[in-house]
Design goal:
The termini are far apart. The chain has 42 residues and is an all-alpha fold. The chain has one domain. It has 2 helices and no strands. The longest helix is centred in the C-terminal third of the chain and has 15 residues. The radius of gyration is 12 Å and the shape is flat.
Length: 42
C-alpha cells in the first residue's frame, strides 16, 4: 500500500481489519467478515 501512496493511517486501518481487531465494534470489520463468509459459501 505504501507503494501506491496510501498514508500510514490507512495502512494501519487495513491491518487492523485483516487482524480482525474489534470485530464487533467496527461495522466495516463485520462487513468484511460477512463478505468472506458469503464468498466461502458461494
Amino acid at each position: 500500500m505504501r507503494d501506491t501512496g496510501d498514508n500510514e493511517d490507512m495502512i494501519a486501518y487495513v491491518q487492523a481489519l485483516l487482524r480482525k481487531e474489534k470485530l464487533k465494534a467496527n461495522p466495516e470489520s463485520q462487513i468484511l467478515e460477512d463478505v468472506v463468509g458469503l464468498v466461502f459459501l458461494q
